[in-house]
């Protein structure tokens, strides 16, 4: 009876909540459609309704925002038009449709610039930066967020400052600069708590939890994620609640509590499916796929990660594609499909290099240093412009006095420049030819490496088959009568279907030695005393052959290969923590 009463009470609460939501939406819609009310009241009601609809469906919110945009165009009010366009962009961001969000935010940017709305400019600069961040373009993201921060500080808009600091924390988090990231997040949190931005608090607590997770502080990370979930429920923010559950799932997976991890990840995926958050759904599927890999449930991991990859490709979320490709590589490897596993590993490496190359890291560091410098020099900006003007006037006067001399020098310079341009063109053409030659050579080397790897695997498989054949022969020896004759017939048929050429091993070693000749020379030059077997072992490791394959090729036990690797590591003067494979690839 008590259980029935509790269920009835819960049902009544749900009905009352839905009625309350329906009543609020109806009230706002009536005010928006009431032509007797002032246009400003109608617009504010319409924008509030679009924002309210976002809690339950980004699609419905966007549909009404487009209707609101038509209203603003009919009233020829550019301020209202800018707000409606911005909100449409926000709905696309909510669903991970970042290219579309990018287009709407730039439309808003042009309008607020035309209106000279400094606050609106600061807000949209931050939004554009957030979109570039989600698309994996960190240098562009940093540039726009810093512009937003500078302008917000100038006009003393603390909510915008807080958001910019949070976004800077996101960028440094992805670049693995965790101390700087945590500092930005804590500054952002302090401002939000000071001015009472309750709806933004779940996000910052979530971000702080991510930093603690990266620093392997499970207790602090879980506390931050739980606080994010609690605050999300208070403000009825389903998106943030789902994000908190997702991160709790990842955190428990890190501590090998996989049942608890799946419980939270399933909650997160259910909410993201409910609110049609496709980008968030892709992340949730990726995290659950990684958890399945850790549990050796490779088929489930493959299914989740393939769905996540499909969504992330549509929305062009490069960073998520990288994570999903790593998961798929591990899943296919676990399923024994090494070819597909290698394909996804190569794709993962390519995406990783795109996101975290040194050039982009330097660009971001340089942008932030420029921002700090400009901030320090702000007080002297007036004197600087005066000096610049005086220098310009002096330069023009000097230019007028030396006009004739300038033109003579100009003609001579043009002649020299033309000649140098010709030389540069010839030099550039030669460089192009050399580059093409090098590319062809590298392609040939890569093809030979793949051919060697395939040959090694074939040799290994054939030798394994030979071992199994010997075992079957031993079984036949002890058999008698018709059973023995039948086993011989089966064996004869199998041997006919199996082609084994003994010279494959010799051809393989010959090709290895030919391809690795320059590699052998560098090894012997840098490290004395290496035997021929040890040098060949280096080539096998560089070809990414595993211990079992190497043991089969050399007709020894895997334990002997491990001992050989340890001896080789000592001769190469490597410590136990050094990665032998990575070291050999650098030679």
Automatic annotation (TrEMBL):
Keywords: Membrane, Signal, TPR repeat, Transmembrane, Transmembrane helix. The chain crosses the membrane at residues 406-425. It holds the Pfam family TPR_12. Coiled coil: none annotated. This is Tetratricopeptide repeat protein. The keyword Signal applies. Residues 1-20 form the signal peptide. The lineage of its organism: Bacteria, Pseudomonadati, Bacteroidota, Flavobacteriia, Flavobacteriales. TPR repeats lie at residues 122-155, 162-195, 242-275. It comes from the Bacteria. InterPro entries: Sig_transdc_resp-reg_C-effctor (IPR016032), TPR-like_helical_dom_sf (IPR011990), TPR_rpt (IPR019734).
